[in-house]
Write a structure and sequence with these properties.
The structure is a single chain. The chain is of the alpha+beta class. The chain folds into three domains: 281 residues, no CATH class; 216 residues, 2-Layer Sandwich (Beta-Lactamase); 167 residues, Heat Shock Protein 90 (2-Layer Sandwich), CATH 3.30.565.10. 61% of the residues lie in helices and 11% in strands. It contains 25 helices and twelve strands. The chain is elongated, with a radius of gyration of 40 Å. It starts with 8 loop residues before the first helix and ends with a helix. 33% of the residues are buried. It catalyses: ATP + protein L-histidine = ADP + protein N-phospho-L-histidine. GO terms for molecular function: ATP binding; protein histidine kinase activity. Keywords: ATP-binding, Kinase, Membrane, Nucleotide-binding, Phosphoprotein, Transferase, Transmembrane, Transmembrane helix, Two-component regulatory system. Its EC number is 2.7.13.3.
């Protein structure tokens, strides 16, 4: 057989491909710091492709160009293997080596077939060898696609972001060759249209490689999960694709002339695009994993791999690591292949509240995510709830409180997993449905029951560490109070000494002058200490609440502060509520003091507003200060030693709430960062509690 001269657009495409591949190869060779990695192998493969393109454009398709074409294919095979080897994955992935060796052997046999083909004089014998060569190149393309598929799907999520463009370039080349040589074999002729476009394939590869290789390399981790099974399934998928392409080509063979060639090219483009879109699909990969687990394995999970991933997720630490609550959700989501989840943690009223969200944006969870009855159900039964089955009517023995309204209405909600440790519920993990929905079986439930107590122990340990830290801070606080008491004792001793000396030297003018200075200093020190200690008083809990005019109390509190304090009382009429004047005054002092400090920079007043609704009386302490974040409101407010002020103890708000609760009232808070804060104290009205009492003059006198 003789060479076929290339001319026109096909030759131009080959020349452009040669220039582009040589430029990229030179750039990769120039990166000496990456010597020995996949960059060198890709540079060699690009150089081989450039030599083939130049030879084909200059001398046409013949024995030289065909030999160079096979050499370029082997170079790209080596580059694919180096992509496995760049982070050591080839050492832990045994099934890869036999596949690489088999594909390389098929590639080496092509050299002999090319020499035999072009050495034949008999045209029929030459076409027979050409058909065998086409079959070998089909097999080579199929094997290479299997390798590319496993290169991508077997890598971690982080590694896929770096491999997506190199893998796409390799897949595009071998998908084109698979279609090209299949058409050549079935038609027993050279498809001129496809051959003309073959010279432009390296241009597309260069574009994808430039995008992919331009990204900085980061640490890649490989998570081999039954790699041989994935390879087998990949080969099956490619085989089905090949069968579909064969049937489609048979249908297109009835078209002749330009229409037939155009139909072949359109089918090639559509088939390649379909493969490039479907193979990286997360839904397709999820379907493959489920299919493998159902049909090829005795157990659904690779328990060694699941445990390693679990420990990596929970043990992740450092400044950039997510909080423990988010890692707990992620650990359960990874096991169930769920894309998102959230954690509900116990609240003070016995119910559950939102503690953490992981990749589940836009979900609105109420302040009380689940009531005490629902939390008690999961504590007593340790029940793992499949919400899909529950929506289908499987609700036997489940109280309505176990599935709140917001959870029932969320279509993405899938599994509810309780986290119990020593019979105590430390949280509920709610998972979103995976990309490929499936039913839970006994193995899912067993694994989640094992993981749940383990995660609960981590949450319990974290809570214990927080409690220990608070105890240590309380100890530090007690030591500070001891210093304050020591100062008070010194002042008391000083005043006692001053009183005894006054009896002896009261007539001495110099003594009287010194005494006045000493009294003035001692008074200043005592006022400072008393103002500090006055914030930590406790109410007398054994005294029952009585009808108290809280409007008069608010006005007195505002009038007691100087004009510079900026307190305005809005309490025009008497409002009698069941409270204790001393305790309420102390709670209001805590809140007013915090409000004044929060609005000091803004220069705005603090308002005390008294309101009634027919059954309850409310006192609102409103400021326009810096406000508090939702995270601070949810996790830190009303907890000691958590304050938005530098050096603050965070005890004032906690003391105020305890005082109000001890009197039978409630304390609520609303705050927005940059807008201000409103504390609302509510008590039952005296008239609602004692409807027969027509006069409260004695109580008004008591307040006055």
């Amino acid at each position: 057989m003789t060479s076929t001269i290339i001319s026109g657009p096909a030759a131009s495409g080959l020349l452009l491909s040669a220039i582009a591949t040589l430029m990229l190869a030179a750039a990769l060779f120039a990166r000496r710091e990456d010597a020995g990695t996949a960059r060198v192998a890709i540079a060699v493969a690009l150089s081989s492709t450039a030599v083939w393109a130049l030879a084909t454009a200059s001398v046409g398709r013949g024995v030289i160009s065909e030999l160079l074409f096979s050499a370029a294919h082997l170079a790209w095979l080596w580059a694919t293997y180096r992509l496995f080897a760049r982070d050591g994955r080839h050492q832990s992935l045994g099934p890869i080596r036999p596949v690489v060796a088999a594909v390389a052997l098929v590639g080496l046999l092509q050299f002999a077939l090319v020499v035999v083909q072009y050495g034949q004089v008999d045209p029929e014998a030459a076409w027979l060898v050409a058909s065998i060569l086409a079959v070998f190149r089909i097999l080579f393309s199929v094997g290479a696609l299997v390798l590319v598929h496993n290169l991508y799907v077997g890598a971690s999520q982080q590694a896929r972001r770096e491999l997506v463009w190199p893998a796409s370039a390799l897949a595009a080349m071998w998908l084109f060759d698979l279609n090209l040589f299949t058409v050549a074999y079935l038609s027993s002729s050279e498809p001129e249209t496809l051959l003309a476009f073959r010279g432009a394939v390296p241009l597309a590869m260069v574009a994808m490689l430039v995008i992919g290789l331009g990204r900085p390399r980061s640490e890649q981790g490989f998570r081999p999960s039954r790699a041989f099974a994935f390879q087998s399934l990949s080969l099956l998928v490619i085989g089905l694709y090949f069968l579909f392409m064969l049937l489609a080509y048979r249908s297109l063979s009835y078209l002749d002339g330009d229409v037939g060639r155009l139909a072949q090219f359109a089918f090639l483009a559509a088939a390649s695009a379909l493969a490039l879109v479907l193979l990286p699909s997360r839904r397709i990969r999820a379907w493959m994993r489920v299919t493998l687990a159902k049909n090829l394995f005795k157990h659904r999970y690779d328990y060694r791999e699941e445990w390693l991933r679990f420990t990596r997720t929970i043990g992740r630490a450092g400044p950039g690591a997510a909080p423990l609550q988010e890692r707990v959700v992620q650990a359960v989501a990874d096991i169930a292949d769920s894309p998102a989840g959230l954690l509900l943690a116990p609240s003070e009223d016995g119910g559950l509240e939102l503690a953490a969200q992981w990749q589940w944006g836009g979900l609105q969870v109420p302040a009380q995510a689940m009531g005490a009855e629902g939390a008690a159900f999961y504590t007593e039964t340790q029940f793992i709830l499949d919400l899909f089955a529950w929506r289908d009517g499987n609700t036997d023995g489940m109280p309505a409180a176990a599935v709140p309204k917001w959870l029932e209405d969320e279509p993405k909600a899938w599994i509810v997993v309780p986290l119990l440790h020593h019979g105590r519920l430390h949280g509920l993990v709610v998972l979103a449905r995976p990309h490929h929905s499936r039913s839970l079986d006994w193995e899912d439930f067993d694994l989640l029951r094992v993981i749940g107590p383990q995660l609960a122990s981590y949450l319990a340990e974290d809570a214990s560490q927080d409690a220990l830290g608070e105890a240590q801070r309380f100890d530090e606080f007690n030591r500070r109070i001891a210093f304050v008491m020591h100062d008070i004792k010194n002042l008391a001793s000083q005043l006692s000494l001053l009183a005894s000396n006054a009896e002896k030297h009261a007539d001495n003018p110099a003594f009287r002058a010194d005494m006045l200075v000493t009294l003035r200093n001692s008074s200043s020190k005592l006022e400072t200490l008393l103002s500090r200690l006055g914030r930590y008083g406790k109410p007398a809990k054994d005294e029952p609440p009585v009808p108290t005019d809280i409007a008069a109390l608010a006005r007195q509190l505002a009038a007691r502060h100087p004009q510079s304090a900026r307190i305005e009382a809005i309490a025009p009429t008497p409002v009698l509520a069941m409270a204790r004047a001393e305790g309420l005054e102390q709670a209001l002092l805590h809140l007013v003091h915090n409000a004044l400090e929060a609005s000091e920079e803004a220069g705005t007043p603090v308002f005390l507003e008294v309101r009634t609704d027919g059954l309850h009386a409310s006192v609102d302490v409103v400021d326009s200060g810096c406000g508090m974040s939702p995270d601070f409101l949810r996790h830190h407010l009303f907890r000691p030693f958590h304050s938005t002020k530098d050096g603050g103890f965070g005890i004032g708000a906690m003391e105020a709430r305890e005082i109000v609760r001890a009197m039978g009232g409630n304390l609520h808070v609303e705050s927005r960062e940059g807008l201000g804060t409103k504390f609302v104290i509510r008590f039952p009205l005296a008239a609602a509690t004692h409807p027969s009492d027509k006069s409260h003059s004695d109580n008004q006198k008591r307040v006055a």
